[in-house]
Structure to design on (73 residues):
């Protein structure tokens, strides 16, 4: 029996999962860069909030796809 995550129909989902993980990692780095500043301008604060929301959305998508594939995140 083919494991659920290795089924041919899941290749797109696996590719999307890898892309989401990379996007999540990049967002994390951008947040860390902003967080390293001694102070944030109002524009930086807005950008920080935007990045955190986007990162959380990516994490939710990663969880959803991983769950549908029967994988742990």
């Amino acid at each position: 029996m083919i494991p659920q995550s290795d089924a041919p129909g899941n290749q797109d989902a696996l590719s999307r999962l890898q892309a989401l993980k990379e996007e999540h990692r990049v967002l994390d780095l951008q947040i860390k860069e902003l967080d390293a500043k001694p102070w944030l301008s109002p524009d930086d604060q807005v950008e920080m909030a935007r990045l955190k929301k986007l990162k959380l959305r990516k994490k939710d998508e990663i969880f959803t796809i991983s769950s549908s594939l029967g994988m742990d995140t």
